Amino acid sequence: MKQIVAAVGMLVVSVLVYAQSPASPDLNTIQNWSNADYILLGEVHDNAAGHALRQEWLKALVTKGHFALAMEQLDRENQALLTVTEQDLLSKANTVNEGQLKELAKAGSFSFKGWQWSFYEPLFKMAVEQNLPLIATNLSQSEMMSLMTGKVKASTLPSEWHSSMTKLMQERVEKGHCNMLPKEMVSPMASAQIERDRSMAEAIVAAHRDTHLPVILVAGNGHLREDLAVPFWLKVLDPKAKVVSIAVMEEGNTDNEPQKAFTSVYYVPAQDRADPCEELKHHRFAMPEHKK
Fold it and tell me: N- to C-terminal Cα distance for the chain?
């Protein structure tokens, strides 16, 4: 979300912080990442520079060992078809064309309308060329709608989850929609987001145990927060595991995520884009109907 920094002093402090953040980790740092059980690599979804930087990290990581590659952009309910499709590609040829990669993405319900294909095609290509098991982690849109309408009850939260965390998630949902959401939508959407993070964690824990490989997860920065999102659930599900959470933020941090919520933060130039809040002014928000 676009934020206006009013105080010049705050702006100066921000510039100093970004200047101290290296553009990319050194090889020793990447080696340390490769020793983790779960390597969470973030993104601002539409930032080309961030995707390019992360791709360089992935290239470096696969020289250090073999991994499973998990993606927010793939629906977990399609894991079986995704695996079969990937294995079929691996059995046919060492190289694949774009059409085959798109079929692989479709097997995991990749949304070509919602995600920019050019940013994610290299991930699918790397998975096939390096024989990295692809792992789908997200809830489908229908699952999200079922949660929001109460058709499906959300899972019971563990004792480690506090009411303050629910409140924070609700605040993030409101801010993420420019404070334009109807009040009755905030709590259901926050609950669904919590379930998404849990689903991602469950998927990569299962993949780690099934493949006996460390897992790289690519997902939006918000899903990588150690205080609230996937890393929290990893502590619950696999408490002895080593987890690193690496955010890729824009200079100016327009997403307003706190640096302390990640293992490391790296900055890229902000993407030129229209003000999302202006676009949301023309959006009609409404709770989905609960169809019996």
Answer: 36
